[in-house]
Amino acid sequence: METPADQRPLTQRRFLPRLLRTSAFRYTMAFFILFMGCFIGIGYFVFASTLGNTMKRLDAELYNELQYFAALNSRFGQNGMAGLRAIEAEVARLQIVQKDALYVLVLGIEDRPYRVLSSDIEGFPEEAITAEGMFEFDYETRVIDRDTGEPRTVTRPAVGRRGNFLYRGVDGEEVRAIILTARDISEVTEIRENALSNVVRIAGFGAVLALALGAFYSGNFLRRVDQIGQTVKAIRDGDLTKRIALDGSNDEFDTLSDNINAMLDQIERLMTGMRQVSDNIAHDLRSPLTRIKARLERALADSEANEKDVLETTAVDVERLLATFNALLSITRIESGEGGGNQVAVDVAAVAEEMLELYEPAAADAGFTLVGHITAAPEVMGSRELISQAIANLLDNALKYARWSDETPPVAPTIEMTVGPRPGGGARLSVMDNGPGVSEADQERILQRFVRLERSRSTTGNGLGLSLVSAIARRHGAQISIGRGLSHHPGERALSMPSAYGLGVRIAFPPPAKPVKAPLAVAADRNAPQDAEETPGSA
Asked: β-strand 414-421 against 479-487: which pairing, if any?
């Protein structure tokens, strides 16, 4: 049973108005109007020029004939009616040569009744009495019907010119004569009517075709828009797994849908990351807050508790909490483009030299050998403060996690920082160690916030150091990659197992958009010269 119109969904009841309001329908109709305007304009130009040339040719023929008849009249007109007889003879000859030629020769047309001397038409057209130049008129003539074989009278169109002549009669009185020379234009008129009829048919067909195409394209347009709208509505209602279906046409809708799907994938990843971050924040903040609460409760319950020790221990936990919040705030500000100030030309090699000098004492106290292979590199556009922060985080991360759990490590703990020019422009920075390293499955995860590979999460830290480095790299348009670091066995070059290498973090800074001044001096290598490309696991 068919659903009543007033009970149908609103989208169905308003489909036709929506279709007429679509840009596809409007564009189709606009192009149709433009096409028909051009078509009619070009057709009119061709038709008018063709028909106009034909009419001009006929007018020239008629004018030349009248001039010829006037010359005959001047030649024989002095001898009574001899000029008129000469014109009658020439008319008879011309009628044999030109089948569409029409002639009417009359006397006394202005002093009616007139006398027709020679005529190819029935009657004398009234237009010829007052017309000036070429004029159109209709005349009647008798033809043989092809079906019945009987004569019948038909009306045909023609164009003509008239000429006036004076003659002297037998009694010496001047007599006015008029000759009408004309051409039958039935074929020209038929062509003109057919052309106009074809223009009307084409215009009508074009209008119907434009409406059909507009409805078809608008229907497809609305269906694609409705598909996107339904998907967006489902996502708005909370189903983040929904995606817009592609039809494989690779049109603008597929491009838009693909971009929207990519955006939704990113949103889903961010939401998943936020849930993971929330869980990690809850874990990292709950432990120190629980310790602070328990410590304070014990201090309140124990009248003999050492308040200074309690406050000092609590201050350390609070400082760690503030460090976590400050790191999160820094990452957020950097990703939003607020942190770091304006971008200027930065010499990465000089910054690395300063950070090496700063961290050498700390590395020595921790039992690490800090090695630097720093050569001159092109300046990059960025923030010196942020690049220094990234290098500091990388060195802190290496000093903290490149330790071996055994009392006697299999290799002397070493951290190596390399700076040099990047192939194709820009600078390359890498910090590598020969610690336990990171498995390939976890190499990308360690750039996420609050990701710490140890299950117990007992080591001091909040898992935001490398996340901050990644945010700084993105802020500078640089590429950051996690891979193999220094080999556990430097003398064995054929090692291929990932577990035989430490951790390596590499940042490739792009060349500046505009040329910057090259560094004036080359930073000295802090140790023996060594090409970073020859270091196992470097990129």
From this structure: unpaired
Q: State which amino acid sits at residue 18.
A: R
Q: Where are the beta strands (DSSP E) in 349-475?
A: 369-374, 380-382, 414-421, 427-433
pLDDT at 362 over 80: yes
Structure token digits, residue 1: 């049973």
- Paired with 335 in beta bridges are none
List, in sequence order, the alpha helices (H) in 336-457: 348-365, 384-401
CATH of the domain at 466: 3.30.565.10
The boundaries of the domain holding residue 500 are 340-534
Mark which of 277, 311, 333 sits at the end of a domain.
333
The pLDDT of residue 523: 42
**Residue 403, both tokens:** 């330790």
| Span 473-489, average pLDDT | 85
Assess whether pLDDT exceeds 70 at residue 409.
no
User: What distance lies between CA 17 and its chain's CA centroid?
Assistant: 28
Q: How many structural domains compose the chain?
A: 3
- Helix, strand, coil shares of the chain, percent, nearest 5, are 50, 20, 30
If pLDDT is split at 50, 70 and 90, which confidence band does 456 have? very low
- Do 113 and 209 have their domain in common? yes
Helix H or strand E encompassing 138: strand 135-144
Helix, coil or strand: residue 157: strand
pLDDT value for 6: 47
Reported confidence tier of residue 431, pLDDT bands at 50, 70, 90: very high
pLDDT band per the 50, 70, 90 thresholds, residue 1 = very low
Last residue of a domain, one of 333, 368, 389: 333
- Count Cβ atoms below 10 Å from residue 333 Cβ, excluding itself: 14
Asked whether the predicted pLDDT for residue 518 surpasses 60, the reply is: no
Cα-based angle 276, 282, 285 (whole degrees, multiple of 5)? 130
In a domain, 432, yes or no: yes
402 Cβ neighbours under 8 A, 6+ residues apart: 368, 413, 415, 433, 434, 435, 436, 502, 503
Given a cut of 70, whether residue 263 has pLDDT beyond it is yes
Residue 155, pLDDT > 50, answer: yes
Clarify whether residues 416 and 454 are in a common domain.
Answer: yes
Residue 78 domain-assigned (yes or no): yes
Residue partners of 58: CB distance under 8 A and separation at least 6: 134, 159, 183, 185
Please report how many Cα atoms fall inside a 13 Å half-sphere around the Cα of residue 316, on the Cβ side. Answer: 9
Residue 382: how many other CB atoms lie within 10 Å: 27
pLDDT at 20 over 70: no
Nearest to 528 by CA among 369, 374, 366, 413: 374
Q: Are 28 and 214 in contact (CB under 8 A)?
A: yes
Task: Provide the whole-model pTM.
Answer: 0.47
- DSSP code of residue 245: P
Residue 199 and residue 215 in one domain: yes
Phi and psi at 38, nearest 5°, equal -65, -40
- pLDDT at res. 318: 82
Residues 227 and 288 in one domain: no
Q: Are residues 368 and 497 in the same domain?
A: yes
